[in-house]
Amino acid sequence: MEIIKYLGNKLSESIDLSLPAGRGLIKLAIKDELGPFHPINQLNYEKLVEVINNSLKKRLLDLNIPHFEEVLKNLLDELNSNQSLITIAGV
What we know:
Order of helices and strands: HHHHH
Helix content: over 70%
Largest sheet: none
Structural class: mainly alpha
Radius of gyration: 12 Å
Number of strands: 0
Shape: globular
């Protein structure tokens, strides 16, 4: 769960949203991608990459975020940099 909080905070900084709104966008994108009943504690690196590349991208496009490609690239870089934390913490 900490990685979602971390990525959500990074997202909120990137697109000038409140911290809870950034985390909410990440959580909604996870639900879009994996369904409403997928346990968040069972996410892994690959699934988070899919969420960012698919559902989160669609949400950012729907919100008309002008620099969404850069935002997504930065989130993927952060996710890659913190991949070991996902493995250790089990998200």
